[in-house]
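Q: Here's a chain of 271 amino acids. Please give me its 3D structure as tokens.
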Amino acid sequence: MNIDKKYEKLKNIIKEMGEIVVAYSGGVDSTFLLKVARDVLGDKALGVLATSPTYPSREYKKAVEIASQIGTKIKIIETKETDDIIFKNNPVDRCYYCKSELFTNINDIAKNEKLKNMADGSNADDLGDYRPGMKALREKKIRSPLQEAGLTKDEIRKLSKRLNLPTWDKPALACLSSRFPYGESITPEKLRMVDEVEGFLYDEGFRNIRARHHNNTVKIEVSSDEIKKFLDNECRERIVKKIKDIGYIYVTLDLEGYRQGSMNEVLFNKR
């Protein structure tokens, strides 16, 4: 099925749903889904933006502005996953507890707004990744229209560009808790440190950024084509100083560069 047929299938899925509450983060996928839902359903489409210490602070304002640009109503909530002791302990299925908390809140909003369907922005590529949060989606009866339509991330970017969405070339967005190795406790203070490091690197002009937290060490991932910039002496010294001021003792750079889900590599590499 080509991209245009998938797009038509998506619109038909959303039309059939009739009304929808979308888990909205301001990322590529959820923005595209919310835009199409708005185009198809009008005021029967609502976005829910969840903030918490796990949500990158630099993204909040942009997410609100984008929703306004596409004319979509959103509700803003604060989730409390960091109060959950199981989540704090960071097991390999940590994402399940986060998603369960999120969609419990979204379900309450859907009931209050009398909107019968809930959806997230999972796409066809996500089927090949380790995503324990998918269990929570099934339990809460959350649909994934982009996945049902067979749309991949690359296709979503192309369609987003066609729709003039500013997110079409936005780097992948992920919860800050994904920066911690499984088993290391997650606290609001550690999340703040990661958030500050990534915000600073973003202001320095880096685009694909991950600050992987390892106790008192931060391991930086940037795109392979940005590693050379990172190693410029003046830039490197400025970055190291700032990151140490944030609270880390050691600053390292991953020479393999940014890759999505690198913290999951330990699950599949048993050597």
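Q: Can you summarize the key feature?
A: The chain is about 45% helix and 15% strand.
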